[in-house]
Specification:
Layout lengths: L18 H11 L18 E10 L4 E10 L5 E10 L9 H20 L5 E5 L11 H9 L3 E5 L17 E6 L2 E7 L8 E7 L3 H11 L7 H18 L1
Parallel strand pairs: 1-4, 4-5
Antiparallel strand pairs: 1-2, 2-3, 5-8, 6-7, 7-8
Helix pairs in contact: 2-3
The chain binds 2 DNA strands through strand 1 and helix 2.
DNA sequence: GCGACAG
DNA sequence: ATCTTGTCGC
């Protein structure tokens, strides 16, 4: 007998309600992250690369998530899915996953059914291992779904980094003390770098290679741009 | 106690 | 994240 809903896209029963529970869950789940693995070379895969993002309307207590699948080679949009729900957790630095993942899982599960297969890679807006407890949004989503994930953020959070060279592709280590937790990666010549980190089942080199491939025309990856536009539209539609 | 702080 | 007009430039 086949279950109607894939359990890999369901919220765990022990999903936290308080900050203390959330931190404790991160501490005991961080060991499940897999660093390294094989994903198809950027641009040569025959599968789909998925971008996820979330938008909020705190006035109406609404949250809208979007998951957009792009053809790994052409970057053309092949499938889209959205999910709307109630905001269930406040924004707390270090606990972003608990605010975004519920809606993201819903959208991702729907997208999987529409695609008819699992994505090659999921690109998240935020961090993976570059996190106070090495378990940011991208890593958490990866562990829950079992999918390869990466985190691409627009800000360095509290981490240190030297300014990368001026050209697209130039990068410098993102450091938490002496530990390298990710990379500051320049995706466009003379434009502010992005901050890339491993989510789950990928190497940092592949994470950066994919980010560059997806950010061919703009500073941000095409996956993130499409997902961002879609979740904003879904939020407006839900508000009206 | 003060400041910093992904989205 | 979100509140927000025009404006400079490709």
């Amino acid at each position: 007998m086949t279950s109607a809903v894939d359990p890999r896209y369901e919220l765990p029963r022990d999903w936290p309600t308080t900050e203390a529970e959330a931190v404790a869950l991160q501490e005991r789940t961080r060991a499940s992250v897999v660093v390294g693995g094989e994903v198809p070379e950027p641009g040569t895969g025959t599968g789909a690369v998925v971008g996820v993002d979330v938008a909020y309307d705190d006035e109406h207590d609404l949250v809208a998530a979007a998951a957009v699948a792009l053809d790994a080679r052409s970057l053309a949009v092949v499938a889209e899915a959205t999910a709307v729900g109630r905001v269930s957790f406040p924004y707390v630095p270090g606990l972003l996953a608990f605010r975004e993942i519920p809606a993201v899982l819903d959208a991702l599960g729907d997208l999987d059914r529409r695609l008819g297969r699992r994505p090659d890679l999921v690109v998240c807006d935020g961090y993976g291992l570059a996190h106070p407890r090495r378990f940011g949004l991208a890593s958490h989503l990866g562990v829950l779904t079992g999918l390869p994930t990466i985190g691409v953020a627009k800000n360095p959070f509290g981490f240190r980094h030297a300014d990368p060279g001026p050209r697209r592709g130039d990068w410098s280590p993102l450091l938490d003390g002496a530990e390298e937790v990710g990379r500051a990666l320049r995706t466009r010549d003379a434009v502010k770098p992005l901050f890339v980190s491993i989510g789950h089942r990928v190497t940092i080199a592949d994470a950066c290679a994919y980010t560059l491939h997806l950010a061919r025309d703009f500073r941000q990856p095409e996956t993130t741009r499409r997902a961002d536009a879609l979740c904003r539209r879904a939020l407006k539609a839900a508000t009206l």
